Every structure is written in C-alpha cells, then in structure tokens.
Amino acid sequence: MSTMTIRSQIPTETSPAVAAPSAVPAQSTAAPDPEPAPGSQEEEHDLEHQGQGQGKDRHDDHDRDTPKFPHPKLRLEIRDLNHPGTIKFLGAVNASTLLSDAVKNVQRLLYRSAADKHTTCPPTRSVTVILRDMGGVAYTTGSDLDSDHKEIHFSLSYIASHIPSTPPSRLPAELTGILTHELVHCYQWDAHGTAPGGLIEGIADWVRLNCDLRPPHWKRGEIKIDDPWDKGYQHTAYFLQYLEERFGEGTVRRINEGLRSTWEYEAKGFWVRLLGKEVEELWGEYCGSVRGDDGKGTA
Ligand SMILES: [Zn+2]
Hints:
about 300 residues; alpha/beta; 2 domains; five-stranded mixed β-sheet; 10 helices; 5 strands; about 10% strand; disordered C terminus; binds zinc ion; WGS project CABT00000000 data, contig 2.2
C-alpha cells in the first residue's frame, strides 16, 4: 500500500440537504440477526466494558492501561492563503479537530480498538494535508522518502468552484467527508497493491457512510444491470454495508485485514475464504435484495 496514489473522483452533488456535523461518531448499522460467516471469530469485548462497578479509581487505572491507537503527526500545508478555496476551507472547519477526529473514526471503524487481536493498524506516522491549486478533487500518496508518512492533496480550485453549490450548512460535512475518505487511504490495506481499485475506493466510502457523512446524492440501490461489484465509491460502499449487515458487525474489518495478510489478491480464494461464497454470487444476492426493496432503497 505504501506507494500507491489514489485519486478521488467524487461526483458533484446536485441537491441541497440538511446540515450534518463535521465529524461525528459512527453509528453501528449492523443487522439484528446477522448470518455468521465461515471462519468468523467472536471478537473480544472492549476492555472498556471490563471492570464495571469497581469504582472510579480503578476505572482511571484501567483507562491509563488501555492500549490506544498511535496518533499520527497531523500537518496542514496551505500553499495559497489568498485563494478563494482557502478562505472557504478555513471559514468552515477547524482543521485541528476535523483531522484528529477523522483519524480516530477511521481507526475505530477499520481496526475497532488497539487491543483487538484480529486487526492490525498500519504504522502511519504522519499525515500532511496539502491545500493547493490543482485539478480533480483530492488524492493520497506516500511520501517519497518513507511510505509511513502520507500526503493528502486537496484541490483549492475544487473547494472554490464546487463548494458554492453546497449549502453553507453542509460545508463542514462535505469537507470532512472528503478528508475522511482520503484518510482511509492512509490506513487501509490493499493486498500489496493487488486489490481491486473499486474495493479500495468502496472501503473508503464505506467508512464515510458509517461516519454519517454521506453526501445527499448517494443512494443505496442505484445499480445498473451490468454494474460490477467493484464499480467503487458509494456503489461498492453500499454493497459492503450489505455484507456488514448480513454477515455481522466487523465484516468489513475482516475484509480489510484479509487484504493485509494477502500477498496477491485472487478473487475466488479471497472471498470464499472470508465469506464462504464468490463475490459475484454475493453481489447478485445484494442486487436481488435491493430490487426487493421495492423502490425504498435509500439509506
Ligand atoms: Zn479514494
């Protein structure tokens, strides 16, 4: 995953929506009666739930001893303070809390807790967000010297030209959503660069979806008859959410962890080993479930 450069092609939203907070804790959307996946292991309980009722001092001791995810050095580099995009950005969000909270959301959704024995958070040491005048929306890359240092390049032109169509009340959520998507690329595994790009982008938007940062134009079940499962972005994100609800909370974490331990992605073996079926079959069942929604398929 170290040297990949992932470019986002986030569609321009067209409809206004109600304001959303800039960074909010993700909400679990797991189905009440999930189908257990072959080989799935019951995950250990949060250490936070242990020692209940043992008094405040004991709880404080416990907090001190609970492993925590390493927090990366976060940097913001603004290459043009007078750019209209810069003024929009700085006027809308507190970059310090936005990035810090977004990192915690990504770590929690992809790795659950630092004590989780079934996941392995990569050793990302720093993330530098660079606001600059460029084409496109945003992309993430490893630094030339050390891939544990990530750079997120975010287009001031995009912020300046696109954001005016976004209601001011939605601006923080839009900026936070894009940066959360890019932060996933700083923390996800990709089978040493061999995972399908659509899966990588789908996981990034799945995290955004579960942070309640869904743009108004996203619609569950907007699938054309020949769409592949790895079309990417929100299309694959909603498929992953379906798998999460069907096979149980933690399914996407298992997929991500599978991409860590897989040296070279091979579709059949990867999905059958994780979920007991080939991905095309699962996709067909998802499409069937969406059609069964009878037009109610918005999430
Ligand atoms: Zn991306």
